[in-house]
């Protein structure tokens, strides 16, 4: 239970998948379509790996995802799978599929109206992150979008540090649903809000967060 309001930060930095966007709503259809195409191209044989293998990787950088999903396949297959997954996800978005979590757009607008600078920091690919924010009608609310795909960072810690330095942010909250978000916030000396509503992470995923929320609009209560 939230017992008192915290000092309003200058900025809030958000993860995308599992925090703002219900990524599984397009990820899983794209995942199955990717493996169907890999089989047609002769790059993969057998059944599609369990969905849990890809959903457990949400929040990781791309190269780590395919090492876990396809540990026996060479890097060339990983690259092709990555290309196909992105293509199918973008197709889903263009068809109007996928959804933000309840209350995300309204909450973001209220945070912006209160004078808080809003950013996204995601380990996802640049085109994917930008297309999600644009197609879901929230792109105009963010001062900038930072992705590992665009900035070639090794970790979210480095990505968030670049964001803070480039925009001269003095105080910020890191808001996300994965351990990588907690680490990025803590190593950059930020207050960390753990989003405990996506349901994909381990029980210990948000250990170290300063506070956990069960729905996105709880940010306004904080």
TrEMBL record:
Pfam families reported for this sequence: HAD_2
A GO CC annotation given for this chain: cytosol
Gene Ontology terms describing biological process: DNA repair
GO molecular function, one term: phosphoglycolate phosphatase activity
UniProt superkingdom: Bacteria
Cross-referenced InterPro entries: HAD-like_hydrolase_sf (IPR050155), HAD-like_sf (IPR036412), HAD_2 (IPR041492), HAD_sf (IPR023214), PGP-like_dom2 (IPR023198)
PANTHER family found in the cross-reference section: PHOSPHOGLYCOLATE PHOSPHATASE
UniProt protein name: HAD hydrolase-like protein
Lineage, broadest ranks: Bacteria, Bacillati, Bacillota, Bacilli, Bacillales
């Amino acid at each position: 239970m939230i017992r008192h309001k915290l000092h309003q930060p200058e900025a809030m930095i958000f993860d995308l998948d599992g925090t703002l966007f219900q990524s599984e709503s397009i990820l899983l259809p794209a995942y199955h379509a990717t493996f169907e195409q890999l089989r047609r191209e002769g790059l993969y044989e057998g059944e599609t790996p369990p969905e849990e293998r890809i959903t457990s990787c949400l929040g990781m950088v791309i190269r780590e995802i395919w090492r876990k999903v396809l540990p026996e396949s060479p890097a060339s297959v990983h690259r092709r799978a990555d290309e196909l997954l992105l293509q199918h996800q973008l197709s889903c978005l263009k068809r109007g599929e996928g959804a933000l979590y309840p209350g995300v757009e309204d909450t973001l607008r209220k945070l912006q109206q209160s004078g808080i600078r809003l950013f996204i920091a995601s380990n996802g690919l640049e085109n994917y992150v930008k297309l999600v924010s644009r197609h879901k009608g929230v792109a105009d609310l963010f001062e900038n979008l930072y992705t590992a795909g665009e900035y070639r960072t090794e970790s979210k810690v480095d990505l968030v540090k670049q964001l803070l330095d480039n925009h001269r942010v003095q105080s910020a909250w890191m808001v996300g649903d994965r351990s990588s978000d907690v680490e990025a916030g803590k190593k950059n000396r930020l207050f960390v809000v753990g989003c405990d509503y996506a349901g994909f992470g381990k029980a210990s995923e948000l250990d170290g967060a300063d506070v956990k929320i069960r729905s996105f609009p709880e940010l306004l209560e904080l």
